[in-house]
Known about the structure:
Structural class: mainly alpha
CATH topology: Growth Hormone, Chain: A
CATH class: Mainly Alpha
CATH architecture: Up-down Bundle
Number of helices: 17
Largest sheet: none
Number of strands: 0
Distance between the termini: 30 Å
Amino acid sequence: MDLRLLLLTLATFAAGLAEAILTGVLPSLAADLDVSVSVAGQLTSVFSLSFAVAVPVLGWLTRGADCRRLLVISLGVFAAFSAGAALSPGYTTLLLMRVGMAACSGLLVMQASLLAVELAPAAQRGRAIGLIFMGISGALVFGVPAGVLINDWFGWRWIFAVMALYSLPLAAVLRLTLPSRALSSPADGAAYRRQLRSPALNLAQLVSILLLGGHFTLFAYITPWFQQVAGITDSGRIALTLLLTGSAAICGGYLGGWLSDRVGHRRALVVVPVLFAVAMLAIPLSLGHPWLLLAALMAWSTISWMISPAVQSYLLGSDPESGSAGVALNTSAMHLGVVLGAALGGAVISLAGIDWTPWAGVTLVVLSVLCAALSCRLQPAIGRPAPRSQTAPGTPTA
């Protein structure tokens, strides 16, 4: 195992923490800022939308730049915005700080994913991507439960202060250990056009949007759902439940990459959404049975992190020439899914009640299964590249 991949994983841990940390403290944050829980939940939506917009824009603006320098600067600026969030006097200021954190996180994840692919052997690209996403899922294990406890002990502002203190020494370590090199730009216009002209690859992007949208329909409001629907009201029990579900999820990214390497990108693209639909459906059906509910939550959490390496391996394997553009687009697509899920969850809470959020999420996940199946039908020969002379411009290599 290349230790540099582990350092990149620690960098994406910061990005994952920034996005997920508020899920455990929404009620107290909303009360402190004098807004509703659904309005506070939009701090996650705005973060993800900003992330989605920032990735292609910053990818274009920083094309050809030194990857190590970008990662170090991103972490430094991320620390500054985190400190600003800790000092925010109100909701609007916190919202602006979240936008800045999201932009830095987007650049971090994009550069870390592409550098991981370059550092890993060709046969282990899926696992390298999966390892990067273990950093994000690892934020659930240590970050979200720790955030619940920090909030109880010191208040939510200290969560952002700790994130700032984490980022600065990590930036120094990356500066000393990573190679100084410029990666091939994922923002090449021809590569983007090649990806966007392929119906099969567009459907694969929809798989990420719909599956993660379904996930965040519930996950963005998981603490109030625990309190109001599952009957878990004690903050210690909530933190323990998040710790257990996060512990299960930490290997999800690696499992998604392993599955893609093991059974092929095409099969993994379909299998993961099917498994996720079953796991999410089991959550409301397990209410009243604590151990079954915990098992369903752990499976749901784990499989949610398998989809990103599965989709990105599919995109890279489908068309290696434009695959890096596909990865950049998918990084945005994932966060559009988070926006969709958090917005849908808020609407469901307002119109029907929080107990309906998992059912709304399952509906989106079923649509993701259909998109995955149709994508594979349109792209049947994945993993067997066609000769360049037989490949039309803008058509993905098979």
